[in-house]
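Researcher: Here's the sequence for the chain we discussed earlier.
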Amino acid sequence: MNSNGDVPVCKIVDLGKLKYQSQKKASEARKKQKTVEIKEIKMRPNIDTHDYEVKMKAVRRFFDDGDKVKVTLRFRGREMAHQQLGYELLQKVKGDTEEIAKVEAEPKLEGRQMMMVLAPR
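Model: Thanks. This is the structure I predict for it:
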């Protein structure tokens, strides 16, 4: 016995019940968490203004859902000679989404595709 008068206490626990409760807690936590998906938006370098606006509306919707967005620019044939147009388009996407998204991967060319990854702020 201590000088304070405290007695050591031993708590008897039903181990099965304890395991069951911890399992329930873990499954509740799994239900609540959101998996971040990567959505892809495909464009062409000479996209028209209305088509661009429709794609940007989709991008905003993806950010509202908390998903990342991968913007893919596809070059075909002689468009490869005008890669700066594609780069400028991706810069425009970056500028239009800068208040709601941050750039996770800068635009880079892989074969005939230029890619950029954006994540919600």
